[in-house]
Fold these 2 entries.
Entry 1:
Amino acid sequence: MTTDSTQETCILIRPRSPAAARENVRAVLRQGHPHAADMAVADAVLVTSELVTNALRHGGGLRGFHCRVRYDHVEITVEDGSDAVPVVRARTGLLVSGGHGWPTVCRLADDVTVTRLPGGGKRIVALVPLTA
């Protein structure tokens, strides 16, 4: 992790689990934005958990993970091995499990981009606000 005069803090790792990714985001936020509101940190951690879980469960495995604090946002980048772009699944009932992750990511992030990678797979970048 590094910090410079532009108040950027980042980490580039390949966590082995969603729990490890969540802990890394917490560590980056403690160093790069120690005064972030508890709810903002919780949102960033939830977005991280959803993206990493989806990469492991549906995306052909986690190929890359990058977390960067930029002033009042945290940028969370996840790369996986699938070319399939996430979609919102149709809800068929109130008690149906699954399908909540991608809508949650899109709701909590100010911006989400999905880019197909030249060698296969995709990169998802979510920009999560750290201020109210």
Entry 2:
Amino acid sequence: MSASTAAPDPRPLTGEPVPLDLLNTRWIQEGEEKDLLDSVDGLRIWLASGGLDARFTADRPTLEKTLIARDALGAVVDNPGDPAASAAADAVLGHGRIRATLTTEGPGEQAEFADPAWGPGWTAVRDYLHLLRTAPDRIRRCAHDACILHFFDTSRNGTRRWCSMALCGNRAKASRHYAKSRES
């Protein structure tokens, strides 16, 4: 199934950088945790939504390796500086490398894997390193207590708190309003 024929992505937040988009394959809906990567079909949807489907195959081995990478990425994002989390992410990075290339268009880089099933997960963890280099303080988890989504804050002043103002921001405002109205 190509990107144009892939099933619709059911997640409430998409379009984040690849590492955070991988973390956002888990979300809470009506109090229940959902997981897009509970099947190869879900992996196919995730690969298509991030434009990775042209480079990587959605199959059982790739799904298994991507889940390992997601767990490692989740640990390092939610526990920065934790040695065990860093070691797990580093173990994923050990499954690939960048080879410098020279093409007719000029210098480039090409990712290489001994096992291509590591490709999507490795790509997500490597892209996380780029986010850490450029703006580590902009990698955020939604401030709503009942939300597990992550986002990269691109707001001008860097004060975004919610994965989505329409979802979690409004829920928080409604909760505050309800609490104030009950006090009066």
